[in-house]
Amino acid sequence: MEVDEITREVIGAAMDVHRAFGVGLLESAYAAALAHELELRGLRFAREVPIAATYKGISVGVGYRADFIVEDSIVLELKAVEVLLPTHRAQLLSYLRLADFKLGLLINFHDAPLTRGIRRVVNNL
């Protein structure tokens, strides 16, 4: 499956969850529902994936966790906040750089319509 197709499926899954729940829930509720929706769509994913940071060849610990990694190609960072901030985008970009991924989606379930709360973040490697 191509990255653009995976992206469309993930966004469609997130929109289905948002249609069912609307705004106002905790991030954990959206994450659980999204996991179920991704399963229904036959997408492979992992949740709460540890991301290690290294400095000059040594590990400085696993202080980060990606909410989802889908089809070993897209990192998802979920939010349920009033406003997405530049730090949210920076967080996802850091995950992409540390894990050596090219594409991430930042999804804020608090926005209505949800399309206003989706940001595509690209790591230029």
Task: Give a short synopsis of this structure.
The protein has one domain. 38% of the residues lie in helices and 28% in strands. It has helices spanning 3-21, 27-40, 86-99, and strands at residues 45-51, 54-55, 58-59, 64-70, 74-79, 103-108, 118-122.
Descriptive key words:
125 residues, alpha+beta, two-stranded antiparallel sheet, 3 helices, globular
Distance between the termini: 22 Å
Strand order of the largest sheet: 1-4-5-6-7
What is the residue-averaged pLDDT?
Answer: 95
Bin the helical content: 25-40%
Main sheet record: 5 strands, mixed
Structural class determined from secondary elements: alpha+beta
Low-confidence stretches: none
Task: Please count the helical segments.
Answer: 3
Total domain units: 1
Number of strands: 7
Order of helices and strands: HHEEEEEHEE
* Overall form: globular
CA-based gyration radius: 14 Å
